[in-house]
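2024-03-11 09:14:02 DEBUG pipeline.ingest accepted 1 chain
2024-03-11 09:14:02 DEBUG pipeline.ingest length=181
2024-03-11 09:14:03 DEBUG pipeline.predict start
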Amino acid sequence: MNKIYKLATILFLALSLVNCSNDDDAPSGTLFVNNENFIIGTNVAPSALHNNTTFMPGGTDAEDYNTRGFFITNGDATTEANAKVVSVIIRYPTGQASINGTYGIVDINEANPGAFVACSFSDSTGEFGGDPDTTTGTITVTDNGNNNFKLVFNNIVLKDIEGGTATKTITGYCQTGFYSF
């Protein structure tokens, strides 16, 4: 799972420099990280630091699941050094009518993993979460159409991936149009 998170993060950083088109929906919501307001960035090109993005890799995996990733960047970032990013990767059955639903943290190495969410947070202090050993909680997703999604963070607790004692707790919600790549 950690490999999926790292690959998704690298993909996000590489592609965030590409100007992608989508509705410029103003973000709404109240998102908190450790009870501090996480100012949700606005999709204003060309600043990659303020772009909320989503991606859905082509095809499905061997177990017939779709995967969609979301990256939410803080709007008060002025440099890469003070940027904060919430990353969410959701896996759901291709037979499911939409991505809508509540997803819990599940180890994808189990015999029948089903739908799951992987969530992580990174900032200048480090990386948190990313797999079932370092993450707890659920995320509720609503697809509003036209790449506009509402993500509700139901007490997501992320542990330091380096094994430290620090944690990040994400609560609240984000609703915005996401650039798609």
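2024-03-11 09:14:41 DEBUG pipeline.report The radius of gyration is 15 Å.
2024-03-11 09:14:41 DEBUG pipeline.predict end
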